[in-house]
Task: inverse folding
């Protein structure tokens, strides 16, 4: 199995954090043109509304065709604008909640027009910073209702909810995979599922492979964002460079689940060249696939079933060194 590779389009432009500004600003076409140079890239995940301003459906299709790229998914941003700072889908203002739903619906329109079957939304402004700040039951009800209303608008387009433990809220309303899966069940629509960001899973102290397996078993695994971190913050580093064994297990879990969707790079190339960084992220996928293929999926599955963890890691590390299981380590 070979996964399709995509990237969040915004990382091709100027980037900022709380301390500095990185790279030069680029127009939409300049970002798409730059992305087209990334090794292995077949798709883009543009962010609504920012990557769509001033564009028509036909104009966007022509832009993609010029660079031989698809839209893998549309990322709907309901956190960046000032009106959403105190909540979007869970704002106490019904007008703001309705606006957040409209954003998702408009993102679904764009996805359908551009041949994508999925929108993803990470409701990071929904949550709280302090005890007693929100009515938890009411906020959750608004979230369920808002996601349900948005998803019902276009049943043929999947709505994938991405979770994250914190930032910008100290406590985001969907902090882990289990809570998003509960949300999916309570919404009760077939086109509502989950985006698993491997870095967010690590930051939440999850095993990404376990979260992937549970979501797939529930029929809710819609999209994967890939990156890495030190489990202390959402650093958006290149996948597999910090937590290699988790990365290898993630790819194995996706293969075992029969996932045939997109792997979307959510790597923040602040101090490195964007094309080189996202090309390296693509190669990280291929290296993991090649490692698993040459080791043998059936062999790995058998070792897992036996729960012989010392033997398993001896064999994995011998394979990494290019040795057969019969050869000594030194």
Result:
């Amino acid at each position: 199995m070979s996964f399709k590779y995509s990237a969040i389009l915004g990382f091709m432009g100027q980037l900022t954090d709380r301390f500095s500004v990185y790279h030069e600003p680029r127009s939409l076409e300049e970002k798409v043109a730059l992305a087209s140079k990334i090794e292995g890239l077949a798709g883009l995940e543009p962010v609504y509304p920012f990557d769509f301003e001033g564009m028509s459906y036909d104009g966007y299709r022509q832009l993609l065709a010029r660079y031989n790229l698809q839209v893998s998914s549309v990322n709907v941003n309901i956190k960046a604008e000032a009106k959403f700072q105190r909540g979007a889908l869970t704002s106490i203002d019904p007008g703001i909640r309705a606006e957040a739903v409209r954003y998702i619906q408009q993102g679904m329109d764009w996805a359908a027009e551009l041949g994508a079957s999925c929108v993803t939304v990470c409701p990071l402004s929904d949550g709280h910073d302090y005890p007693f700040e929100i009515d938890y039951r009411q906020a959750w009800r608004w979230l369920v209702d808002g996601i349900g209303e948005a998803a019902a608008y276009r049943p043929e387009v999947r709505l994938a909810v991405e979770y994250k433990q914190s930032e910008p809220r100290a406590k985001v309303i969907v902090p882990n995979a289990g809570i998003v899966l509960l949300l999916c069940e309570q919404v009760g629509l077939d086109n509502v599922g989950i985006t698993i960001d491997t870095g967010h899973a690590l930051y939440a102290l999850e095993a990404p492979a376990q979260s992937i397996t549970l979501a797939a078993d529930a029929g809710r695994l819609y999209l994967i964002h890939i990156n890495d971190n030190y489990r202390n913050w959402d650093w958006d580093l290149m996948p597999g460079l910090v937590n290699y064994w988790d990365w290898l297990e993630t790819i194995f879990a996706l293969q075992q689940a029969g996932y045939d969707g997109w792997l979307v790079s959510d790597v923040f190339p602040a101090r490195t060249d964007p094309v080189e960084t996202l090309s390296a992220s693509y190669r990280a996928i291929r290296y993991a696939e090649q490692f698993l293929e040459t080791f043998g999926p059936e062999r790995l599955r058998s070792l897992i079933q036996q729960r012989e963890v010392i033997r398993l890691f001896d064999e994995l590390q011998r394979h990494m060194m290019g040795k057969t299981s019969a050869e000594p380590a030194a």
